[in-house]
Design a protein that fits this description.
There is one protein chain. The chain is 34% helix and 24% strand. By secondary structure, it is of the alpha/beta class. It has a single domain, classed as P-loop containing nucleotide triphosphate hydrolases (Rossmann fold, 3-Layer(aba) Sandwich). A 7-stranded mixed beta sheet has the order 1-3-4-2-7-8-9, sandwiched between helices. The chain has a two-stranded antiparallel ribbon with strand order 5-6. The longest helix is centred in the C-terminal third of the chain and has 19 residues. The radius of gyration is 16 Å and the shape is globular. The chain starts with 5 loop residues before the first strand and ends with a helix. The model has no long low-confidence stretch (mean pLDDT 90). Bound molecules: guanosine-5'-diphosphate.
Length: 204
Amino acid sequence: MKIKSADFVMSNSNVANCPKDHLPEYAFIGRSNVGKSSLINMLTQRKSLAKTSGRPGKTQLINHFKINENWFLVDLPGYGYARVSKKDKKTFQKYITDYFIERRQLVCAFVLIDIRHEPQKVDMEFLEWMGENQIPFCMIFTKADKLKPKAIENHVNAYIKELLEGVWEEAPNYFVTSSTNGMGQEELLSFIDELNTNFFKALT
Ligand code: GDP
């Protein structure tokens, strides 16, 4: 897929106010500093598209970008736990969970994971939450240029192993990317292109 246009549409904190267009939508989420803005800029071939959302005050918002006039790329803020009850029960921020549960147009979420690190509890729990709530998602490993090919393989395998030892029966789909050298860009855009085709086919 060629990126012909990429336009910022809106930011808001309430899924009810997200764009009403019935277009296929793809959300990008991960811990802060995982490389999300860089990945969005790399994918859309824009130097600072995601910086719009990086401005102070926009960090806790759901940011919609319209790509090629026919799909939405959604930049979600870094997730973390929100403490909700007296018992200190942990959950993720409500506007994030509401977004995933209520956004019908969401075709696939991309959960970003820094490939250099050991599996982190908050990431594993977030993936688990996505699975329990049947939200379609793939993992995107970021910053692969920081590792040699063999280490990439080892780190990915370690992650998958940990998932399979937990609640997962089957490992989620994943992509290995680098915003520095463009690794994974074509694969991701082709994947989205194919899902878009299916989305529009299903409407006819
Ligand atoms: P965000 O907070 O998730 O949006 O992360 P950023 O995109 O702002 O990236 C956080 C830091 O990681 C910055 O210093 C980036 O330059 C760096 N970074 C992001 N992606 C890559 C990558 O693919 N390779 C390398 N080497 N560094 C990256």
